[in-house]
Amino acid sequence: VKTLKGEELYEAVKHSVVEISTPSATGSGVFYESSGIIITNRHVVDSFMEVIVRLYSSAEYTGRVLRSFRDIDLAFLQILDYETEIAIPALCESNAEGETVYAIGSPNSLSNTITRGTISSVGRLHNKLKYIQHDAAINGGNSGGPLFNSRGELIGLNTWGYVNLEGLGFALPMAYVSEKYTKSKEIIENSADNRYCPICGHSTAKPSKYCQACGVNLDAYNSLGELSEAFHNYKSECSCGQHRRETEKYCAQCGQTLLIQSKDS
To answer: Which of 166, 157, 155 has its CA nearest to residue 97?
Structure first.
């Protein structure tokens, strides 16, 4: 595969990149499978079960969250009612320091923004995960968006960066994404037969009322993942002592659910 100029790369991959919007934030994503599977960060979809997917053409579609993972901040979505052929970038799991990379996403809701940089490290360890460290400019809204090499191959998902520091972006390598997809392929491909849990990110076979992973009552949530007040409320403090922020559904320190189950759930 030949090395592409910036304008050639952008033209080749632009239709694979999407903007993802929820009632609380905007992020980015990229098509992963021709069946309409999109990958992004879990923190982009938050606790929502449906999102708005905006394509390069500005057309908007509903995206349904199928599976997500807190441990590596990853989510798989399915674009709905979209029948046009989907552009899928080639994947690459082998990278080297000094390579030129391109980040594409929607920083500050500025759709289809492309920035160029260089890989500083292919294995920067953070929270027991090895990230691709690079210096392409990324900002709020780039989260979940793709990082391409100069051949137009998808090498990672831009996941986090240091606030108030320039040139320090970190992308989740595709090896982690491929591993999670392989383990969850059956659930993802049979999403119509499963129910997504907005609390832990697991999918449970229908018609089960409860999440098989964390036990919450799935009937308590509407299609956006919003909780019915008739079912539950949240603890202000976890049993481990961690105080709950207003938007948190699970403890940021130990990971356990902060839901107070009603007797009917």
So the answer is: 155
